[in-house]
Amino acid sequence: KQEVTQIPAALSVPEGENLVLNCSFTDSAIYNLQWFRQDPGKGLTSLLLIQSSQREQTSGRLNASLDKSSGRSTLYIAASQPGDSATYLCAVVGYGGSQGNLIFGKGTKLSVKP
Amino acid sequence: DAGVTQSPTHLIKTRGQQVTLRCSPISGHKSVSWYQQVLGQGPQFIFQYYEKEERGRGNFPDRFSARQFPNYSSELNVNALLLGDSALYLCASSLDGSPRWEQYFGPGTRLTVT
After folding, report:
1. Inter-chain touch A100–B44, beta carbons under 8 Å
2. pLDDT per residue as tens digits for the range A4-47
3. Minimal C-alpha gap between B34 and chain A (Å)
4. pLDDT in tens, B6-23
5. What is the pLDDT of residues B19-78, one digit of tens each?
6. B22: Cβ–Cβ under 8 A, 6 or more apart, which residues?
7. Is the distance from CB of B33 to CB of B103 less than 8 angstroms?
8. What backbone phi and psi angles, to 5 degrees, belong to B73?
């Protein structure tokens, strides 16, 4: 059974710092991995999608990497800003079961202090 | 273009009652999935629908049911509500439900059961 873990559960950094959020998954048989942002009480905003054949994806100050063989992904945020404060969730789509359903970690709650 | 829309935004129900939540996918998307997110956890998969047919079901009791209409909108029904059903219910849409495609989430419906 696929399990997704995110470390740390919470992170507080001063504005301007570069930071890395970690995601690990137990079964490497995945179609893709997706990173989301969630503001308190709100829905999920898709940040980056990495297909299983890809190693990384970039969007603005965000860079996500995928190492399928080791079951790990990282989300790198450059020059963090207070507006980046939110919970970041990673999710994988695995083989078998209901294709297309995302399996989520519990998220990392990021706080960027001015 | 409008994103995924959900209604209502908030809902308060009493134990034992029934509730219906609604979702409209992004224009052109034919697959809708439902997720339940309890406080402090990542979303959990409930159902996936494509072309009005159920494609997958998560580990939820039969009190949960859903359907998809010819215009690809969807309803999630929950009968005999329990306190533990209190959660944020999220709807996601994708092109055809294939695991290749990115999933886009709506703002969610906050259900409180008292």
Report:
1. no
2. 999 999 999 999 999 999 999 999 989 899 999 999 989 999 99
3. 9
4. 999 999 999 999 999 999
5. 999 999 999 999 999 999 999 999 999 999 999 999 889 999 999 999 999 999 999 999
6. B6, B7, B73, B74, B75
7. yes
8. -70, 165
Q: Which one-letter DSSP state was computed for residue B25? A: P
Amino acid at A3: E
User: Which pair of tokens denotes residue A11?
Assistant: 């992170």
- Position B26: which residue type? I
Choose the mutation target among B29, B41, B100 for the interface with A, i.e. most A CBs under 10 Å.
B100
**What would the two tokens of residue B106 be?**
């709506």
Contacts of B108 in chain A (CB under 8 A): 42-43
Contacts A44 to B, Cβ<8 Å: 43, 90, 92, 105
Site from B51, B93, B103, B112 to mutate, A interface, most A CB atoms within 10 angstroms: B103
